[in-house]
Design brief:
The structure is a single chain. By secondary structure, the protein is an alpha+beta fold. The chain contains 14 helices and 6 strands. About 60% of the residues lie in helices and about 5% in strands.
């Protein structure tokens, strides 16, 4: 068994992949820099670069350590002998170090993900027009209902962590896949009786090599089941939310960066949705028979999801209207009564709602936009390039978003990062404790803490940015 060169090969792989990861981090930071509308490189830009590097390098360390363990299990288990433990001591130390660093870096990356998602600007645009001509007569329940539905999908994931961990633990402990990691050359799902005057033990590298492909395989099966069966025949939570917006006559305006965002067009083709049950059913019937207009932003179009690239003038006007509310709720909410607070809340909401509706309707001459599809390279790099257009259109662009990239502000759109962190946590805890049960429990609890943090901060941000009182968010 020749294992002397294996540690050196691991360091070579780490260096190569980490170098490529740093380049990728620079590309992501450059895209963020452009979307933020910054003119000079400042401390937040450098901080963003470091966070991107930590997230990518953490993933690299995890993949190298898990891949090396799987390789060791596949090609060296049959060669196990009395010298195997001594020959693998160096590699065990390297993998332990890599898993510790990977866990620390990915945990920081997850905290950054939560901070990024819970600080976006979001507003629910109400297209409903009052029947009596008084804006105060427009019902707010539709907006509150859409806000609550959005609040529910903030932490929705295609991979259910509790089910995933229980199934992995079942396969490891009950089916006996864990026994493939026994410190002997035998390959069996059943634990062989120990030799006289010896104890049955598991090899650390073999344990990681067994758990890693099992976790990936179970997650892949769950993902395929969701995409092929659940999403098609039971429910697609994301598209159901978009449909709910159309039924409620509510659009969603999202700014995840200073000059970049997403728009979900929910304007009803029927003009009004605050109607009785009979009229609502008749509207849906006419729409199903194509006897009414389409739900898309453009005429005769069904495209409802867009990526926005806005100009500085629009952003300044948006901030000005929103600041009138935030300036009030800070120092003056404690001194004024509840009635004064609600008056300012209503006025701020109506002003911002009217401004955004006029912007979408092309009713603001100095704030115009055009709509186009994204090019292949723009989809590949997830970045919208500057193109030469007439004056006034340079930065005011809407891109048709068939890939639903707006889910990047939800756990749904960051499934890969969250799954990698869950996997690192499981392997890291097991490597230190040699206990899959303990790894399952701690992984579940840490994931529960992260979900609770995302729900709490997301709910607070949703209330603050949409002007929907927090008491109405269930």
């Amino acid at each position: 068994m020749n294992t002397e060169d294996f540690p050196r090969n691991i360091w070579i792989a780490l260096g190569t992949l980490s170098g490529a990861g740093v380049i990728l981090a620079f590309i992501r930071t450059w895209a963020w820099f452009s979307k933020s509308g910054k003119d000079v490189i400042d401390l937040p830009t450098i901080g963003k670069l470091l966070i991107h590097i930590m997230g990518i390098v953490g993933t690299v360390f995890f993949l190298v350590s898990a891949g090396a363990s799987l390789w060791w299990l596949a090609f060296f288990k049959k060669q196990y002998d009395e010298d195997f433990e001594d020959n693998s001591q160096a590699l065990q130390g390297i993998i332990r170090l890599l898993l510790i660093i990977a866990f620390a870096l990915k945990t920081i990356d997850i905290f950054h993900l939560i901070a990024r998602q819970t600080t976006v600007d979001i507003f629910f645009m109400d297209w409903e027009r009052p029947k009596a001509g008084d804006m105060n007569h427009v019902s707010a329940w539709r907006t509150c209902f859409v806000a609550n539905e959005f609040n529910e999908i903030q932490t929705f994931r295609r991979i259910r962590v509790s089910f995933h961990l229980l199934l992995v633990l079942f396969l490891l402990k009950v089916i006996g896949v864990e026994n493939l990691a026994l410190a002997n050359p035998e390959i069996s799902l059943s634990q062989l009786p120990p030799i006289v005057n010896s104890t049955v033990d598991y090899h650390l590298i073999f344990r990681t090599g067994v758990a890693f492909p099992l976790i990936i395989g179970v997650a892949l099966l769950q993902y395929i089941f969701y995409v092929i069966f659940y999403q098609r025949f039971i429910e697609d939570k994301i598209m159901n939310f978009v449909d709910l917006c159309s039924v409620s006559n509510i659009s969603v305006f999202i700014l995840d960066q200073n000059r970049h965002g997403h728009y979900l067009h929910g304007r009803s083709p029927h003009g009004t949705t605050d109607v009785n049950m009979k009229d609502m059913l008749m509207n849906l019937e006419r729409e199903s028979r194509m006897m009414s207009g389409t739900r898309g932003l453009q005429a005769n179009s069904t495209d409802q999801i867009f990526i926005m690239k806005i100009n500085r003038t629009f952003r300044a006007q948006y901030d000005l209207l929103f600041r009138k509310y935030t300036d009030f709720v800070g120092p003056r909410k404690r001194t004024d009564g509840r009635e004064g607070y609600t008056d300012v809340l209503l006025e701020s909401y109506q002003n911002l709602n009217s401004f955004l509706c006029a912007y979408i309707d092309h009713s603001l001459p100095n704030l115009q936009y055009i709509i186009r599809n994204r090019y292949f390279l723009e989809k590949l790099f997830n970045y919208e390039f500057q193109i030469g257009l007439d004056a006034g259109y340079m930065d005011s662009l809407f891109f048709i978003d068939n890939d639903k990239t707006f889910t990047k502000i939800l756990f749904y759109g960051e499934e890969n990062s969250l799954f990698i962190w869950n996997t690192i946590t499981f392997l890291f805890i097991d490597y230190l404790s040699k206990n899959f049960v303990l790894a399952t429990i701690i992984t579940y609890l840490l994931n529960l803490i992260v979900v609770s943090m995302r729900n709490s901060f997301g709910r607070r941000n949703l209330s603050k940015k949409t002007l929907v009182p927090r008491e109405l968010l269930i």
